[in-house]
Every structure is written in structure tokens, then in C-alpha cells.
């Protein structure tokens, strides 16, 4: 009778559409903070442009519905004429040059507050662990955290970040809903 879909920005995927098209509920509600998709799929059209409530990021921050944050996307760099990006091999993703590039950007953007704390989103579990180890070798205090970690391990990492015991959590597949 009633279907509610959270994180409905994913509803453009064939797997979601198959489920949505299979059921014929009396009421279908989709919820997302990020309705605009980079692939131009129209989430609004999927729900016949019925919007029960809308609040944008800035308004949600002003209403203290979200904690404030700074989000920085570090651009890829070029080595020997090749762009080092998400499609690059692990060897290139954790090379000394890329580590230097990341540290340079960390220092450039800085932080606000009494001490640095942040999340670094990676493209794979292997990169998450290797990059965390490489950054630790350079003097940062980081932890690698993936979907393989248990809920208690995740909570422990968050507590360490909150207490300034670590500076960064490097992660993949968690903490990033709504981020492509």
C-alpha cells in the first residue's frame, strides 16, 4: 500500500526502476537530499513532480539540521604525460608523487578549528588501506575504514576523530551517501 524510498537519487538505476515499476502502491514517496543527478535522470519526473517538502543544503545548515562541513575535491595530477585518476593502478595512486600532491593540497586548504579532522574518500578498499599507511609514514594520523569494518570499529574510529586522536579517516563505501 505504501512505499517509501530513502536515498531516492539512486532510483535512476535499472535495479531501482525494476522495483518501482513492479509494485503499484497507493502511495509512493521518495526522499533524497540530492535530487539532481549527473547523468540527467529526472528524479522529479519519476514522482510526477510532486514535492512534499524541499530544503536545500544552505537552508538545512542555517537551520542546524546538518553539521557544518568543508568539502574539497583534490584534482588529479599528471605524471609522465598520464593523468593519475580513479582509473589508475594502485601503484600510481599511492606513489610518492601522488602522496606529495595530496599533502600539498591538505596544507593548501588547511582547516578551521583547533586541529585538523576530516574524511578522505578513496576509490577502492586497496587504495584506502595503502593511502592511509603512506600518509601515516609522512607523519599524519589516519585510519583506513571500509564497508568491511564492523559497526564497533566504525564507532571507535569516529570517536578517535572526535577526540583528535587521529586527523583523518580514509574511507570507501561508507560516509559518502549522495557523493559520487
The amount of helix comes to 25-40%
Largest sheet: 3 strands, parallel
The percent range for strand residues is 15-25%
Distance between the termini: 32 Å
Overall mean confidence score, pLDDT:
84
Topology as a string of helices (H) and strands (E): EHEHHEEHHEHEHE
Q: Output the structural class.
A: alpha/beta
| Structural shape | elongated
With helices defined by DSSP (H or I, 4 residues minimum), what is the helix count?
A: 7
Rg (C-alpha, Å): 20 Å
Major sheet strand order: 5-7-6
Query: Which stretches are low in confidence, meaning pLDDT under 50 for 5 or more residues running?
Result: none
Q: What is the β-strand count?
A: 7
Secondary structure layout plus pairing:
Elements lengths: L1 E5 L7 H9 L4 E5 L11 H4 L10 H6 L14 E3 L2 E3 L5 H4 L2 H14 L8 E4 L3 H13 L4 E5 L4 H12 L5 E5 L8
Parallel strand pairs: 1-2, 5-7, 6-7
Antiparallel strand pairs: 3-4
Notes on the protein architecture:
Helix content is 34%, strand content 17%. The mean pLDDT is 84. With 180 residues, the chain is of the alpha/beta class. The chain is built from seven helices and seven strands. It is elongated and about 55 Å long. Helix 7 (151-162) links the parallel strand 6 and strand 7.
Brief characterization of the structure:
This protein is α/β, with parallel strands linked by helices and 180 residues long. It has seven helices and seven strands; from the N terminus they run βαβααββααβαβαβ.
